[in-house]
Amino acid sequence: MKRDYAVIGLGRFGGSICRELSMEGMEVLVIDNDEDKINEYKNIASHAVIADATDEASLKELGIKNIDHVIVAIGDNIQASILTTVILTDLGIKKITVKAQNDYHEKILNKIGADNVVHPERDMGKRIAHNIISNNILDYLELSDDHSIVEVKAGEKMVGKTLIDLDIRANYGCNVVAIKQGKDINVSPAAEDVLVEEDVLIVIGSDKDISRFEKNLV
Ligand code: ATP
Ligand code: ATP
Ligand code: CA
Description:
This protein is an alpha/beta fold.
């Protein structure tokens, strides 16, 4: 399925999105006001154009209106990121994803109508911090300000036990929503299933409860 994407700003983040989308066979238009960046990506993206994204006329000329999903990956220049996002929302772009540089930037982007605001440095830092707590914590995903999902490998405290034995819900207030075994995923784990090595539990709960669960059981 081919869809049209545009990536504005070719720093490490935008550049990586462009490479991955192109590798997946997607049509990608990239825009940057730095000529060197455009030269670097002209053989990777389907179209690479030097333009200032804060200039509405230039964006219009590039036919940005016909693109379903635009990713704004201008980092340090927060003003340019905000201006670009306002122009794109005014033009009625269907989906706009924007990289936020800090929490205030994120707030503004949400207010002006960005559909999806990402904060990769902060989020990756959090995920890696949880992995540092234990090698068995494979992933960590924020659901809201105070709820998260963690993916944990069954360690020595879990292998050979059932969910009843561990009583995760009563002891930690968390719910095991699924158990992954290799490629299989069991979305309704039974209380008497015995956990084996390499099982991966997907656990949902409040941050406080998940933190207790991580400290005691993982
Ligand atoms: P990284 O992802 O590497 O951390 P960053 O988020 O720090 O990058 P910057 O290097 O600040 O991002 O900017 C990303 C790109 O956005 C740069 O290549 C820059 O030339 C481009 N850029 C900045 N302002 C504009 C603009 N007004 N129009 C088009 N491109 C712009
Ligand atoms: P981000 O994750 O926000 O993109 P970055 O990778 O661009 O950050 P910098 O802002 O360059 O990283 O540096 C990160 C931090 O490391 C800064 O707070 C800086 O003060 C600190 N730092 C840089 N060099 C040293 C050093 N030699 N000793 C101690 N701290 C340092
Ligand atoms: Ca940066």
